[in-house]
Amino acid sequence: MKLHIIFLIAALLCLLHEPFALADNFEENDFAEFEDFDEDEFIVGNAASDQQSAGGVDSAASLGKSNPNANAAQDDSNDFAEIDDNDEDEAVVEDEENEFEHFQDEEEFEGFPGTMNEQEEVKLADTKKSEPKLTMAKVPMHFRTHWDSYCLEMLMLAGLLAYFANYLFGNKKNSSIANLWLTTHKTLLEDNFVLVGDDGKKETETSTLSFIKESESIYTLWCSGRTCCEGMLVELKMIKRQDLVSLIAGIMKPVQDQLHIKVEMSPDSMDNFVFCIASKKQATKMFKEMNDLSKFCTLVNKTEEKYNIPGYSLLSEIAEASSSLLDSRLIAALNKYSHLIEYIHVSDQYSGPVQQEDPNTLKQPEVKRILHCGFNMPAKIDMEEMKPLLVLVFYLMERIKRFRLSKEGKSKSDKNRARVEEEFMKNTHAARAEAAAQRREEKRKAEKEKVLANDDPEKQRRWEEKERKRLEKKRPKMKQLSIKAL
Prior knowledge:
Order of helices and strands: HHHHHEEEEHEEHHEHEHHEEHHHH
InterPro entries: CCDC47
Signal peptide: 1-23
Number of helices: 15
Membrane topology: Single-pass type I membrane protein
Keywords: Membrane, Signal, Transmembrane, Transmembrane helix
Shape: flat
Helix content: 40-55%
Low-confidence stretches: 20-29, 31-94
Oligomer: single chain
Largest sheet: 10 strands, antiparallel
Distance between the termini: 182 Å
Main location: endoplasmic reticulum
């Protein structure tokens, strides 16, 4: 009997121990509900725990009085059973058909096309229409496969190459023309001048004769050492062959290579007169642009009837000077070389082109006695054809040296120069009066400083008295009228 009682007590203790051990396991692992279990293991574990909890409840009910902790254990087992039921519910896998049901919920996605009404759909379509359309730029393919994409660049490169090639060719061409002219006329120049090709920088005895290159198209040569002249400047003004743009412009407005020879006459080797014979177009241009021709000469276009020189106009100050210079030799040269001779200008009042009138200018421009000839070069660049033109220049130099005006011619020449001087004085009268007043004021200021620097009060008093009298003389006198009282 005692053995049976001891066996029953031991069995009850074992049953009571299992719920508390299970509870301890749940308390120790708070995150057991988040662990991943296989569905079969989860169901088997719940069934075993249900059986054990059921047996434990019956035995506990029978022995509740003997074990005071039995009620607490029963409550704990009921709680764990509820937890196991909830875990079983959560472990149920949802059907695949219901997995995307939330996409059909209208409250989940507001403004989605499937949930919008007709008005909202119309508004959305309007906004889409008003949105700007983006267009992608067409990027050209690589130049290796599409050379036509670089046509502009290739044209520019070809233009630059043509320009530089023309520059080299044109520069060489102008230089060869200058050297050819010098070679052809070298003997004639050396026979008439002691010094040919003087540039003022190097010794001409040891240097080779050559032009001075002013630019790619202008070459100059200075000659001196001859009677009746101070010197002669030879200037070759050629076409700008090195400039491709100038060549293209020359197609529309043809130009020629030109030779300009300017001789500075000695003061005692030329009388006072102004004379010019030029082609009609050039004569009109020079009459407007040259200062001495516009002031002293009149334009005569009837040279063919009087001098038998067709195609030329005469600008003359004194008729006897024109008749003397236009002798048979010069007229023959003008008729024979009319395509080469552009103008012949002789003047003792040469001052260059007309300058803009400046009222502050107090002196007339400096004048020179010159013989200025302009010739066109032949198209075929035949320098032998130009030799007679240089000979004509030397002939005119000797002709001007021998010519002398009559008394009437000299009187007329002097009157013309006095008239020009008077016109200049009238135009600059205001400027000269202002300059004279300024000089007087500076003189008085210097005198005042000198007197004040002196310590003698008597001299200062006399100077002040003198200055007061001078100012009183300058004041306008006013007449005093007396009115009698009525």
